[in-house]
């Protein structure tokens, strides 16, 4: 396909996606599941070819001076491919949400009214670095009965093309349209501008990458966007708490992995627990090289911890997503102050309370305005797989349609259905 004329090329891709979406919406559960099982088999059978394509991207990235973490995100390899293949099989085993009718109620007029779950239609996915997202997005689109247009990062173009060809082969093998999943074959950034401005062909866009990418798409899109800009997640230590448990959970929430959007970036500690909790968590953070940016009250306690790196927190620190071994720490006097602080500074992604006080836990759940709110658990659990969604296409901090991890149901919507026996309105 000629990709030189970007507007014409993207229009052809959009038209094909819209036509495929009609067929995917009517596809049987068995056909969708056969596609996913075939895709898993093809991924396992083509490890060597996929590694060769991936090597082209890795070599180019190295030559262009990409850093270690970026190279790690680019790598496929047998382990990553086995994981995505297993994900396809898990998705095939999950119930099909499409066509489910719920909430049917009989009205006094004789009609029965309910809601049916249906695919969104066509979604566009713009993502960076990780080629495994190609399979995750494609498999979710297939199971949810949608068509999708994928635009990966230029640094992963060879890997994404190789993976996409396997997706198309699996679709054809199961009797579904190959154009149900399309990959934008050009690295020209103008293609993104076209993709997010085609409401005739695209129903929703899902950006997955850095804050700059998501801000650009949110500002320029002419179709709805499912997004989260950043993940400034909080863990709050309440006045009544199991300190031993709180130490383990807080440590995990911050240090289990620094780069995900669900890692805790801000620690709030009730004044009643500051002298008991902060020296212990400070020692754990010090042993792992975590810098603590503290309010004056927290700094007064933490500065006595051997080996700790403690600096004064600035106003900007309370809303910062570090994605690094850095955490902001603040002492608060009340639960009210903790909730107010979180609602003001958080990115409304994921926030947790550690407490043995049940009424306080319930208040936190009700009043903290975030997509995921937790009691006595690590914020690192805010993940589609951990929530039992099978897979996720991203996290949404929006309030309409999808909120939190977006899995199969997040790629569908509800329409009203009316069941009658010849009733007429009087």
Give a verbal description of the structure.
With 426 residues, this protein is of the alpha/beta class. Helices cover 42% and strands 19% of the residues. It contains 14 helices and 16 strands. The strands form 4 sheets. The chain has a 7-stranded parallel sheet, with helices on both faces. A 4-stranded parallel sheet has the order 5-4-3-6, with helices on both faces. Helix 2 (29-45) packs antiparallel against helix 5 and helix 3 packs antiparallel against helix 7. It is globular. The model has no long low-confidence stretch (mean pLDDT 95).
Task: Describe how the helices and strands are arranged.
Blueprint: H1 6-25, H2 29-45, H3 47-63, H4 68-74, H5 77-93, E1 101-106, E2 112-119, E3 122-127, H6 132-143, E4 147-151, H7 157-173, E5 181-183, H8 190-195, E6 204-208, H9 211-220, E7 233-237, H10 243-255, E8 264-270, H11 274-287, E9 291-294, H12 296-302, E10 310-312, E11 326-332, H13 335-345, E12 350-354, H14 358-367, E13 372-375, E14 394-396, E15 404-406, E16 412-419
Parallel strand pairs: 3-4, 3-6, 4-5, 7-8, 7-12, 8-11, 9-10, 9-11, 12-13
Antiparallel strand pairs: 1-2, 2-16, 14-15
Helix pairs in contact: 2-5, 2-7, 3-7, 5-6, 6-7, 10-11
